[in-house]
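Hi all, long-time lurker, first post. I run a small reading group and we've been trying to get comfortable going from sequence to structure in the token notation. Rather than ask abstract questions, I figured I'd post a concrete chain and ask someone more experienced to write out its structure so we can walk through it together at our next meeting. Sequence below, copied exactly:
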Amino acid sequence: MAVIGKIRNKMGVLLIVFVGVALLAFVLGDLLSSAGYLLSGNSNVVGEMNGKSIKIDEFDLRLRQKEAFYSQINMGASIDDETRQGILDETWQEFIEQYVWNEAFEGVGLRVTTEELKDMLGGKFVHSFVQQQFTDPATGVYNPAQLQNYLNYISDESAVPEEGLEEWKMRRAQWTNFEAAVEKNRLQTKYQTLIEKGMYVTDKEVARQYAENGDRFNIRFVGKSFTEVADSTLEVSDSELKKAYEANKMRFKSDFAIRGLRFAIFDVLPTPADSAALFTQITSLKAEFEASDDDTSFVFQHSDLQNEPRYLRKDALPVSLGDEFFNAPKGFVYGPYRDGSSFYLAKKLGEKTSADSVKITALLLARNNQQGPVANAKERADSIMNAIKGGADLKALAFSLSQDPTTAKDSGNIGWIAYEVEGMNPIIDTAYNNSIGSIKLVETPDVYAIVRADAKSAPVGKVFTAFVSTEIKASEETGNRIYSQASEFAVANKTVADFENAMKSGKYLIREDNFLRENAKTIMGLEDSRNMVRWAFQKNVGDVSAIEQIGNRYVVAIITKSRKAGVPSFDEVKDDLVTIAKRDKKAEMFTEEMKSAASSGNIDQVAAAIKKQVVPATDITFTSFAVPGAGYEPAITGAASGAPQGKLIGPFKGVNGVYVLVVDAVSKGATPPAGQQQKLDMGRMVGQRAFSEAFEAMNSAAEVRDMRSRFY
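-- Answer (accepted) --
Happy to help. Here is the structure in token form:
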């Protein structure tokens, strides 16, 4: 129901929330869509898990069913890209639950009985989802009577008149999905409880946690930074690289296939000449706009942003307009003026004093659906209106008859609508323009709406304003010139080395994304670049893309590396190991340089030997993020927390260099209080972490591979 979608969009709240999306409380983000690139040659496989291949026809059938259901409950509303992506992700999640999670649940004997489900849906121990859906808006308390009325309605098909049968079927299908979501959540909650109750925290663990957070150390340290020796002065052998590989290969492990990209960006930006031409263009419209007697048509004919005129408070007007516009006579046109990336003309069409916001109740009946006009919609609306005139309660009728599911379950309550949307929707305008308590039948292209204003805020002054805008953008000539530059670059640069040299030249804007995952929606730094992500996983290292237009940019990319999911081979990460091996080589050099002086146990002698200053640092804890004088250096905080007081420790390798240190003083933190609360709190956190990691382990063991990018 598009008209209500507009209302909710202005309120910043989705009108329809797909049943199930909000219920996936245990979805672990990217963790649960672990991806890899399956080089099996199976072009019809959309994913793999637990040894089962998910075929595209099976996946796509379920996806289309969910899209059709979404469209049905939204009265045929089109599905935008964001919603489509949400449905796609939810469909993938269902396969993970079916073939990974549910098998694990069955393996430990977990299930939800029929009696248990029945109780959760309306018995003694009602599930929280049910309570949320049937909460009395006036009291904020779960209302069992609302639930029972709904169950009575969907349980008796014979009591439904023929004209209401399609709606009844939709409501019944919604409830079936809701039951499944409650059952699924209950099963996951049982598994969570099983995991959490299997964890135990000892007294020593509690004491250690208190020490990590509370014990403070005053230290002195001396360090030699890795930056003091340039990488360019060192060479590393294959044996040194292989040694670094064995020590670090698990750091490179990934559940995702990886590509590396280097890409040149050519921004298509307006020139000063382009801006001047557009300013002249909008200026030429001013006289015609002043003379216009059909301002809405004028806006839709001449404005890049085609918004209908609307009432605005003074503080909501663009800063450029100010008092001059607010106090001007009807018909006054201000501008052109610049606001952001557009030039504007603003015309004052009128003024009034009215409420700042209004609270609305509405019963909504579809006029049209995917099959065309709804039969008898007008007669049904008139019949309901007559019943209300005869004393029937609007809220009760909205609960049982309104065809917008979200507001129906809230007895037709749309809520408070701010003044910003006044003048943009006939349902809202009716509520604004009629007295509190009056009920009107409103006809829009999408719905018949029976509308009542329940309350209004204090009135304020507003001006009815129409805007004509011209976006400041590059001309066709500028675009062609930038495209030519991108074309010249693509012809001249065909290899990874070419891109490297072009980047070093400083003549081009060239960026990198060295860890692009197959299921990524965008390339780092490039919005709406899903097509290029798909290209990257269909081609090979060294392939150069065609010129891709992404927003107001032209992009030329080259694939610099390719990795399968899992632990990469030595050759796949050899280049990445160079920096690590050189750092290890520096660490060995610095350690040897410090060893002799450190054997004295005197930190000042170490400082003299390497010509560095002793650095003091106070109030260091085990959990300190940074150390004064060293920055992020967990090796120092770890060594300090375990070092005996007064004894020189090191040399040891850290993130940024090699160090020695002495702990001069230790201030013990608070002793854990007696009692079980601390153990319970810590146990709860440990259990929750274990629960999350259990799902991670399930997906990893099942070797979940997400190959949806082949098709979507």
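A couple of things your group might point at:
Residues 357-457 form a domain with the Chitinase A; domain 3 fold (CATH 3.10.50.40).
The chain has a mean pLDDT of 85.
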